[in-house]
Amino acid sequence: MHTLxxxxxxxxxxxxxxxxxxxxxxxxxxxxxxxxxxxAFGKGLHAQNQESMHGLGERIVILWGGKTSKPYMGFGRxxxxxxREEDAALLKREIREMGGISPEYSKWNTTIRYKKNTVTQNxxxxxxxxxxLRNIYAEMxxxxxxxxxxxxxxxxVFIGNELKEDLFGQDRAVGKYIFIDNVPFLxxxxxxxxxxxxxxxxxxxxxxxxxxxxxAAMYGYxxxxxxxxxxxxxxxxxxVKKQVYQVLGKKNKFDPEDKESLAMWxxxxxxxxxTYFFLAFxxxxxxxxxxxxxxxxxxxxxxxxxxxxxxxxxxxxKMSLGAxxxxxxxxxVFETLMITFAxxxxxxxxxxxxxxxxxYLKLEEYMGTPEISFSAGLIAVGVLGLVGFISGFFxxxxxxxxxxxxxxxx
Length: 410
Fold this sequence. Notes:
By secondary structure, this protein is of the alpha+beta class. It is built from 14 helices and 9 strands. It has 2 domains: 2-53 and 272-409, no CATH class; 61-266, no CATH class. Helix content is 55%, strand content 15%. A 6-stranded mixed beta barrel has the order 2-3-7-4-6-5. β5 and β6 form a beta hairpin. The radius of gyration is 34 Å and the shape is elongated.
């Protein structure tokens, strides 16, 4: 009964103050939409960043040879350490915690030709496990390099999706021959398109991948460009990295404590940093949105103070007829929450529509795909409830504290 009476009174008051009510509700709409959209875009940007980062590989370590900075076992400092293909097998054999590992030969400005189309791109020689380590997968109808290709030194090639477009256009590439430095290679697969922001030798979409044994036989390279590996357990990455120094230090006669002798890029460290960065970034966005919502709440509080002023005599009549303070307090808190709730619902619906329409703008590559999470909704509802209660409580308490006799005189 009281709720129906409060609702009727609320609608009557809002109709009499249309412009003021609209501006107040708009402030809540804007604040709610800000909180939800900022959190949604923050989450989408984080997800996009993670996807792009994982385009390089998940929790992998890239290893290069370095230059010694300490004398060791009769050798002076300043000696270059170069990695060989067999070092990958040695590390796999000596370190039980080692997971997948692959050497990587690299040759820039390789001439690749199909019919009249000729390009110069980076070609690399790798082991089959390289695809799994680097999140490189074949499009339907093709495959990545396999152990038989490696053992038999087959002249087969797996090409990036952009390289395929440059050579074949819309034509099918799998099963056809291309010429790499005038040597025929059978295309066995095309890379499935992926997002990749990080790289150490160019984007995979432009590369040609051949078996490491074929590469070595074809070009006679003694040293590999780098080695890529991944521990079996990501929690043991630091231990595995120390073991790499131990094993290669023993083989190449350098101090295992000399960190300059080898160079390592542990992508899990970057992933950890970015996780904390985006957590702080999303918290910052939430704070900005919350302050916007608080500003809207101040507007609600102001209009309720005006309502109290305009209805002072009415409040006095109600209290003289026996209305309790709690009834007056409840009525004004109810009206405030109704304004806040109406603005919150409209603001949330607006944010939801923006999130649904955004993918059609084709900006996901740059800004990610915004996603309204449960936590974003929970934060918005929590802040809305708090703002609504505080905005209505003080004007309501003021109304409930009026002296009936003085109120009737005003």
